[in-house]
Design a protein that fits this description.
The structure holds two protein chains of two kinds. By secondary structure, chain A is an alpha/beta fold. Chain A has a single domain, classed as 3-Layer(aba) Sandwich (Rossmann fold). Chain A is built from seven helices and eight strands; from the N terminus they run E-H-E-H-E-H-E-H-E-E-H-H-H-E-E. By secondary structure, chain B is of the alpha/beta class. Chain B has eight helices and eight strands; from the N terminus they run αααβαβαββαββααββ. The mean pLDDT of chain B is about 95. Classes of the chains: A alpha/beta, B alpha/beta.
Chain lengths: ~240, ~200
């Protein structure tokens, strides 16, 4: 199902049964889930996808999990936390990886997707699947003390391939396992991703559609938002010939 | 102090961040801090500070502690190695006070904490539009003052309020961990979500 962004904005309390898919329940997915829950999880249907179990090293930044959750699939621990803290929440946990065999089906069943993964391959899969299904999504990434977020409205705004073209080689990327990660930096980006989802589902234009937010905490906090244009060679359909003039 | 194997495992992803390291983690674990604001604005910052291993956190909740018992219990569940108590039980030296001001009630609580003589460093976040974070490292001569951050009265809430609160939490984390060698007093001003920095204002 693809969300239509209309001009008539609805308030957050009017959001009824929109379905949000969160892919990744780690450093980004946890704050995104928490933010959505605080904003009224009872009025949203949340699907959580992540194949990994909770590990002790997650607890410093994935702050909804507990030591006793170690070994439990993250999506199950997250669903339990949600049920305890926000009774009535409609949540569907899938302890699986999003991959080529299930991505189209999962994305098609949702109105908005939050990309909270930490793998470039997964990010490009989400991008391509959402473009094909015309489902809006928000990209997020964080490594070390920096993070990024960008919302993609298929065929209207630049997509991930417009910006990055192709996934980097494995040896070009540093995951948080290698480069480290700090909880509040990831928390800020995940919170921003959830806010984008809520804007979209309230029929508002997401703040970061066609823009990329960069948060650099390696010095005093610095946040920049830059416009990103669709790329003519990208097949996402957002580029229009008259934009080149 | 020496980090235990369990602590190294638990905090490994932040320990490996350049300029944090084991020493930064030891500073976090040894730290005592105060956190003040409205319950809704300090709930997530508290969780992240507890998760990061900040040793002792005194909490001052605008409107009273009564409605915050669940959050404090959740903090203990998240990290049993961290002490979270009401701020008035946290007497003595405080390494940092993080004041998150999102309402007049929070302003009142923050102003009370601002008169606390033993805090060495401060981070004050104003969540009213346009939003501002004042960072006052320990021992910094001159620069912005906590008192100045308490004026004027709280206006309408910034659309980026939750984001600003999380950035303030990150600034507090960095100060406690000793992330920057010689941090300067600074004011981070927001224009929507974007920031503009004034160092040594």
């Amino acid at each position: 199902m693809a969300l239509r962004l209309s001009t008539g904005a609805r308030s957050a309390t009017e959001v009824a049964t929109e379905r949000i898919l969160i892919v990744g329940l780690g450093g980004l997915g946890v704050p995104a889930l928490w933010t959505l829950a605080r904003a009224g999880a009872q009025r949203k249907r949340l699907t959580l996808v992540d194949p990994d179990p909770v590990e002790l090293s997650n607890l410093a930044r994935q702050v909804i999990y507990r030591s006793r959750d170690a070994g439990t699939p993250k999506v199950e621990a997250a669903a339990r936390w949600l049920a305890e803290r926000f009774p009535g929440a409609d949540v569907e946990p899938h302890p699986i990886a999003l991959d080529a065999s299930n991505a189209a089906r999962l994305v098609a069943a949702h109105d908005f997707v939050i990309d909270a993964t930490d793998s470039p391959a997964a990010k490009f899969l989400i991008n391509d699947t959402c473009i094909a299904a015309r489902t809006p999504f928000v990209y997020g990434g964080v490594v070390g003390m920096t993070g990024q977020a960008m919302t993609v409205i298929p065929r209207r705004t630049a997509c991930i391939r417009c910006v990055f073209e192709t996934p980097p080689d494995d040896n070009e990327t540093r995951s948080c396992r290698e480069a480290g990660i700090v909880g509040p930096v990831a928390g800020a980006i995940g919170e921003m991703q959830a806010a984008e989802a809520m804007r979209a589902l309230c029929s508002q234009t997401p703040f970061l559609s066609g823009k990329i937010l960069t948060y650099d905490a390696s010095g005093p906090a610095r946040v920049r938002i830059a416009a990103v244009s669709p790329r003519s060679g990208c097949g996402c359909g957002a580029w229009k010939p008259d934009e080149s003039r | 102090m020496t980090l235990t194997d369990a602590q190294i495992e638990r905090y490994s992803r932040q320990i490996i961040v350049p300029r944090i390291g084991g020493l930064g983690q030891e500073r976090l674990i040894a730290a005592r801090m105060l956190l003040a604001g409205d319950a809704r604005d300090i709930e997530a910052p508290l969780a992240y500070l507890v998760g990061a291993g900040v040793g002792a956190i005194g909490v001052a909740v605008a409107g009273g502690q009564d409605g915050f018992a669940g959050e404090i219990a959740a903090a203990h569940e998240l990290n049993a190695g961290v002490s979270v108590t009401a701020a008035d039980e946290s007497k003595g030296r405080v390494d940092l006070a993080l004041l998150i001001v999102g309402s007049d009630a929070a302003l009142e609580v923050a102003a009370e904490i601002a008169s606390y003589p033993d805090a060495r460093a401060w981070v004050v976040a104003r969540l009213d539009a346009p939003g501002i974070i004042t960072v006052i490292p320990g021992g910094s001569p001159g620069g912005p003052t906590v008192d100045a951050s308490m004026h004027p009265a709280v206006g309408s809430r910034s659309e980026a309020a939750d984001f600003i609160a999380m950035l303030a939490t990150a600034e507090a984390f960095k100060l406690i961990a000793g992330y920057a060698e010689n941090p300067s007093p600074s004011i981070i001003e927001f224009d929507g979500y974007q920031t503009r920095l004034r160092v040594n204002p």
